[in-house]
Inverse folding.
């Protein structure tokens, strides 16, 4: 092996500042604060790239599409342990599940509708008079109506049980809060609750979520569902810049 190949096979994992220090280069005493801040920012970016590279080198597959190492998230954040399916394979199987649902039951898939009916049942138990006199809630839980007697509720329960079983098999069952290094755990929870409320309101306003509208409606070639799907992706990309510090 030539000298160049031997040198190239060993990466210099030192930061730019460490390399300058080893070479005898030191910053002048009268260096401005702006220069120091820029150097610190470059060092942070370099360390983030190094973390991502290290995690990527540790990431491996066994040929079946299952990840055997921790999954690297934005800026090198480890998003979980255990085995995860290949996303393309999972998307293909989800499409087959949607087809089977149409064929066997005559219904597609949905998520927000089942959760909404569970909340209607809680409201009916806590404040039955209010539900009976509410024009919207009475259609689902007023009088003798049972909001839980619906196929969407059973589908939601199946998703919860299936998700728990998958996590149990993959060894991912644990209590944790996934967040970026720049925010605290309480802040992450506040953003999660606010985001959940906004998504729930939007799903009711749009008469469906990414399952009922995007998947089911999109498979039926509904123009409104396709408009909904593109709006969700477009809005997500536009908002990502403002909430990037949750992960970076």
């Amino acid at each position: 092996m030539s000298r160049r190949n031997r040198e190239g096979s060993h990466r210099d994992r030192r930061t730019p500042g460490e390399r300058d220090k080893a070479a005898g280069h030191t910053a002048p005493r009268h260096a401005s604060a702006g220069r120091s801040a820029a150097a610190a920012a470059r060092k942070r970016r370099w360390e983030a790239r190094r973390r991502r590279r290290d995690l990527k080198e540790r990431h491996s597959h066994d040929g079946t599409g299952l990840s055997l190492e921790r999954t690297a998230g934005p800026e090198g954040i480890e998003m979980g342990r255990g085995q995860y399916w290949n996303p393309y394979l999972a998307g293909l199987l989800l499409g087959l599940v949607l087809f089977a649902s149409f064929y066997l039951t005559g219904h597609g898939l949905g998520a927000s509708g089942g959760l909404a009916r569970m909340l209607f049942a809680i409201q009916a138990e806590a404040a039955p008079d209010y539900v009976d006199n509410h024009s919207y809630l009475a259609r689902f839980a007023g009088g003798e109506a049972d909001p839980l007697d619906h196929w969407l509720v059973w589908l939601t329960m199946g998703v919860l049980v299936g998700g728990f079983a998958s996590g149990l098999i993959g060894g991912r069952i644990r209590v944790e809060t996934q967040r970026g290094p720049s925010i605290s755990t309480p802040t992450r929870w506040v953003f999660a609750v606010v985001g959940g409320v906004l998504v729930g309101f939007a799903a009711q306003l749009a008469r469906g979520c990414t399952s009922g509208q995007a998947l089911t409606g999109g498979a039926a070639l509904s123009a409104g569902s396709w408009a909904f799907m593109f709006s969700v992706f477009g809005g997500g990309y536009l908002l990502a810049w403002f909430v990037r510090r949750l992960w970076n």
Notes: The chain has a mean pLDDT of 75. Residues 33-58 form the longest helix (26 residues). The chain has eleven helices and no strands.
